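Annex B, item 7. Sequence and structure tokens for protein A, then protein B.
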Amino acid sequence: MLDPATFARIVISDDAVVYASFANSQKCWAHLLRKAVKLTLLEPDNEEYRHVADRLLEIYREACRVQRDGRLSDGGWKQKVAALDDEILELCGPVWCEELPPLEGTADDNRLLANELMRLMLQQQLFTFVTAAPVEQPNGETTPVEGTNNEAERTLRGPANARDTGHANKTKRGARRLTVIESVLESLRVQLATFTLSSVIDEVCRWCDRGQSCFADLLAELSLPPPKHSILDGVLPSTAEASGSSG
């Protein structure tokens, strides 16, 4: 749903193909580590799989330490990232260079993981978070770029759990309504200095008085035109659109 032509930030995601069009990307280390750990659980006596999982975790933790090292200059960070790339090459290069055909069972999973890590390393999507500048939110908070997409998943977990446990929003109309509400609330969480029920109500009342929301202000600040259609129309069309009505 993000537009690669206008989204100028870093996309932190798994390696799904839908994110391939974003050049400035950070692939989620949690997903990569889980793949390595899964191999050790399937074959606990396989020393190679244990070594890959252990080394990957060590490399990720080392990258996190480098990111937090305030003594480094831009050149120093780049040298550290180059060294991290070399560690990935040392770990995965032997399997990658063999250009193995599809294998059987966990051996193929190991091959695919090595190839994925090498591809992401060469595309510079493994250690983007190490050198990226901290992100300043509209509410004034500054947060470092993370190496996993856990924050996004945690943000979505509450509404997803509420939907599942309440057995609600089984229709497109209900799902669309809740999606709009949750999107506005979570966007306001990073817009408002204090996120409380009172501050949210005050902000929405301000929109009514001004005839324009803070999101319209943000579009103007970024010199982006207001959207002609809701991006939800492609996945959750309104009842009128779904029935062909113009009402």
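Protein B:
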Amino acid sequence: MIANHIHDALAQVRRLQDLILAKRLFRGYSGLARMAGGLLALAGAAAMSRPDFPATPTAHLRGWAAVLAGALLCNYGALLCWFIIRPGSRRPLRELLPAGDAVPALAAGAGLSLALVMHGAYDLLFGAWMCLYGLAHIPYRNSLPFANYLVGLFYLAAGLVMLAWPGATFTNPCPMGLVFGLGELSGGFILFRLNRENTLEMQEDTHDANNR
């Protein structure tokens, strides 16, 4: 009997821990929007790989700027929609605070990119982008699933390889397209599963409440 009580108490503690961890997860990011960003990276790399695309750093920089603009529009547009149209009349701005965790790393990436362009070091851009974007994942290790943290480590490792790769050239878009395509598709799938599980839990809670 005592053993059964202890087992039940431990099970309740585990359920409580799971509930607390679930409450800490940030669900504002859209998995589908992130996967769309990955497809944009692949499409952009394919377009810039065409023989008729200008093989100049300026042209490729504009191409990647267009990919970035499209990805930002998809992801932050979806985040804004989530904040505006989700159920509930009260929408405190503090619920958006986790979205700002990536800003320092992304801002540093923008500044570093500007410095590299000003010095003509275009071939270092891919590695710098991958490393800084990988570091942008680190603050989310407690507010997003652990698998998302692993995606960040993937970006970081790929960036270090690109920085050390002597044959890396900015006018070859394939490494950038493949890394960001794979990374964003994987990260998007992780977020899609997280949000789907949350939707199913909400439906179960609603069903249970209606049956009471």
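Comment on protein B: The chain has a mean pLDDT of 83.
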